Amino acid sequence: MALNCGIVGIAGSGKTTLFNSLSRGRSMSGQRPGRTNLGQFDVPDPRLEALARIVKPAKVTPTTVEIIDIPGLTKGGSSMKGGNQFLADIRQTDAIIHVLRCFDSDTVPHVEGSVNPLRDKEIIDLELITRDLETVEKKRERLSKVAAVGDKDAKRGVEVLSSLIEHFEEGLPARSFSIHELDQKYIDDCFLLTVKPVIYVCNVDEASAAEGNKYVDMVRPVIAEEDGEMLIVAAEAESEIAQLEEEEDRKEFLNDMGIEEPAVNKLIRAAYQTLKLKTFFTEGPKEVRAWTITEGTPAPRAAGVIHSDMERGFIRAEVMKVDDFLSLGSEHACKQAGKFNIEGKNYIVQDGDIFHVRFNV
């Protein structure tokens, strides 16, 4: 499974600049001028690289993340021409990267006349909540007609949706709406925009890359109150650094800015943490490969990520920990040290597992 994130932000926030800074050295799967850019990037994982150095396979395949650069919004923009495409693009994503403008610039005037990341955040939030509100109101109207003839399930659905509508009217997103597991079915088919987890990126000037600035300080407590993930990125500076040919030169310039790693690494790690994703590995002379699963995935379902036949005919999994393999140097050494385990259908795959599947179809 490829992780899919959409970058949103008010026009002039620097989200396309951020997208370009992420694109260095990674293949672009497509561009759509005037609409969105779509990029597919390799997920950096030092464990995969170290594993490949030991195994020396014919091929090394990292897991990937897809990032969609969604056109910038202005107040009321989602209801204007192109707004439906904007919303459709967001619905494709697993998570939203919300870029907040936290920099001053004489050459890039702000569409609202001044820099205020809190106001900008509220504009985007309101656009998404308004569309979700319209969606839920339409569904409640349909269910109300069924409830009127005595359908108890429809009546309960109307009650749940009415509570959610009140939640929206308070300016709150669906992800903060408390709902019983049995009632989840009433909103699942609405494909709500505001149910998606959000990673906030404060886009700052180069001098503020390490510690942030007054604009970051404005939004920090609000995002903390939401229990949201927040990153500080100097997108323009990183975009320029990304154009340097030599890795050492890029590292040197990042260090000069007081940061240890590029934005893409921080963003991917934040996305994995937000979505509770884990990585496991397969290894052999033909290929060493990383795979992405959700937290709590049992062995047969993880096998199905590799191939559906493996899940259907799953017998057992042979499991090593990547740290053990790297320290001991081989599968044989792991077996000798008692670090090679046979696991059944109830085994929950852990981050960093090296996974061999035995199956019969």
Structure explained in plain terms:
The protein has a 7-stranded mixed beta sheet, with helices on both faces. The protein has a 3-stranded mixed beta sheet with strand order 4-10-9, with helices on both faces. A 3-stranded antiparallel beta sheet has the order 12-11-13. It starts with a strand and ends with a strand. It is flat and about 65 Å long. The chain has helices at 15-22, 46-55, 83-91, 117-147, 152-169, 185-188, 214-225, 235-242, 247-256, 263-275, 299-306, 308-312, 322-328, 331-336, and strands at 3-8, 30-31, 37-42, 59-61, 64-69, 95-101, 198-203, 229-233, 277-282, 287-294, 314-321, 341-343, 353-359. It is α/β, with parallel strands linked by helices and 361 residues long. The longest helix is centred in the middle third of the chain and has 31 residues, at 117-147.
Percentage of residues assigned to helices: 40-55%
Record the strand order, biggest sheet.
2-3-5-1-6-7-8
Structural class: alpha/beta
Q: Give the overall pLDDT as a whole number.
A: 89
SSE string: EHEEHEEHEHHHEHEHHHEEHHEHHEE
- Beta-strand content: 15-25%
Contiguous uncertain segments of 5+ residues: 25-35
- What is the strand tally? 13
Query: Treating each run of at least 4 consecutive H or I residues as one helix, how many helices?
Result: 14
**Main sheet characteristics:** 7 strands, mixed
Distance between the termini: 23 Å
- Global outline: flat
Overall radius of gyration? 23 Å
